[in-house]
Design brief:
Blueprint: H1 8-17, H2 43-52, E1 58-64, H3 70-84, E2 88-92, H4 105-124, H5 133-143, H6 162-172, H7 174-184, H8 188-210, E3 217-221, H9 235-246, H10 248-251, E4 257-262, H11 266-269, E5 276-279, H12 295-318, H13 328-337, H14 341-354, H15 362-374, H16 381-393, H17 403-414, E6 418-423, E7 425-430, H18 435-446
Helix pairs in contact: 2-3, 4-8, 5-6, 12-13, 13-14, 14-15, 16-18
Length: 451
């Protein structure tokens, strides 16, 4: 780009526009940084190869923490497949599920088919060529005499979009969801055949419309955002485990490649699932007691910052770099991020808010880090003990698979208090921004009482 805004306020506004924590960066965007830290274990490349080396159908799961760049990597997968000649549709699970409600395989199949149907209509303008899945499903309910007491889903009400009514109830009404799941649990094979029949017709439509030589690909993103609360007691996690462990044959659609996102804690409670791929935190330190700095991960995140600021912007905001164009304050923020892309963007935003006359000072950067650390607090004594074990051993050993245990570790992972990294094998660690805080809590509460 050309020269940066001369006025400081305008310059800071420009920076903030390039530092949106929730934004998904398309690989075609100038802000995107190609993944190069661990190319042999790049999950998206592995999924791409599995799809392109498999003729008819495949099923892959992609897992990663919130803010790990997962959605951007899925856009990269879509772009690479499009370039190869594949038809790719995208769906967002949060448009179809209540995030804190358990999901049966029957409800998941209904929503999966509905999401594919919506993607064909919205993104690929195929609505005039076929009946949407929602209408098709309501007709099927009527034909098979499935009754959902208290909910009028008659298929032939004049001037009523019964499909839209059904979809709205599915998203917004827990009572309706419960009744539907109860009814469908009695006819799992019938429902599976109904869903697979829809996909068969939809795939034929796609092939006819686009003349695609390959099976279409459907990427179902954001399912990892479903989570338990203290009230659900692990039932959401249990439902997800059941779907992935026991129902992969139901999700394997003939003539269709499926890519579905899953929560990162899944790997702790499921075994021997080779089609679950994981996006790890960027490794900034090694798996030893001294935790030596890992140059490759640090350089990758330095490039992320450089892309957002530009070289000129870096010098202006952080001060002119020394030596090999390394900004010490940038490295300070990178280490405080724990290797999470979104945490790094949040820290950069906080630093901008605290900046006065440029360049920014170390005191202002430290204040931004302190603020971010406070967002992890408070930490309960039980959580501190769990994190203390991870800190000492850099591994996570679950004492049992009880729902409350899964809920507790899920919370630590989703909140980024605990990290999963890879250095050949997988290992765990505590987020560096709270490592000393955890040790302080344990010292305060677990030192021997004075006599």
């Amino acid at each position: 780009m050309g020269s940066l805004p001369a006025d400081t306020t305008t310059f800071l506004k420009w920076l903030k526009s390039r530092l949106r924590p929730e934004a998904t960066v398309n690989p075609n965007d100038d802000l995107y940084v190609p993944v190069s830290v661990d190319p042999d274990h790049d999950p998206v490349s592995l999924i791409y190869k599995d799809i392109t080396l498999t003729n008819e159908s495949s099923l892959n799961f992609l897992s990663g923490f919130n803010g790990s760049g997962k959605s951007s990597q899925l856009l990269r997968l879509r772009n690479d497949l499009n370039a190869k000649g594949y038809f790719v549709a995208l769906g967002n699970a949060l448009d179809y599920f209540l995030p804190t409600q358990p999901v049966s395989i029957e409800l998941f199949l209904i929503s999966l088919a509905g999401a594919f149907s919506d993607a064909l209509e919205k993104d690929h303008k195929l609505q005039a060529a076929y009946e949407s899945y929602w209408k098709r499903f309501v007709h099927w309910l009527t034909e098979t005499k499935v009754e959902l007491n208290g909910f009028d889903l008659k298929a032939n009400i004049p001037q009523t979009d019964v499909g839209l009514t059904f979809k709205t109830l599915l998203k917004e009404n827990p009572s309706f969801i419960q009744k539907l799941q109860e009814q469908m649990s009695h006819r799992p094979k019938e429902l599976r055949d109904q869903v697979h029949g829809f996909f068969k017709d939809a795939v034929a439509l796609v092939r006819d419309k686009y003349g695609a030589q390959f099976s279409p690909v459907f990427i179902f993103d954001q399912f990892e955002h479903l989570h338990d609360t203290t009230n659900t007691g692990g039932s959401v996690a249990e439902s997800i485990i059941t779907i992935v462990s026991n129902h992969q044959q139901d999700l394997a659609i003939a003539g269709q490649h499926m890519v579905i996102t899953m929560p990162p804690w899944l790997k702790l409670v499921t075994k021997n699932l080779p089609n679950v791929r994981f996006i790890y935190s960027v490794k900034l330190w090694g798996n030893t007691d001294k935790r030596p700095v890992q140059r490759a991960g640090q350089d990758f995140l330095r490039e992320v910052v450089r892309k957002r600021f530009t070289e000129e912007g870096l010098d202006r905001f952080f001060g002119r770099a020394k030596g090999k164009k390394v900004h010490p304050l940038v490295d300070l923020l990178i280490q405080a991020s724990g290797g999470h892309l979104r945490d790094l963007i949040v820290l950069l935003n906080e630093t901008i808010l605290r900046s006065g006359d440029l360049p920014v000072t170390k005191k202002q950067v430290t204040a931004a880090i302190d603020h971010h650390r406070n967002s992890f607090l408070p930490i309960s004594l039980a959580q501190a003990r769990c994190l203390g074990e991870i800190d000492r051993h850099r591994m996570c050993a679950l004492p049992d698979n009880k729902p409350e245990t899964i809920y507790n570790i899920t919370h630590l992972l989703n909140s980024h208090c605990a990290l999963i990294l890879r250095n050949g094998g997988e290992w765990f660690d505590v987020h560096p921004i709270i490592r000393d805080t955890v040790k302080s809590i344990l010292r305060s509460y677990e030192q021997p009482a004075e006599v």
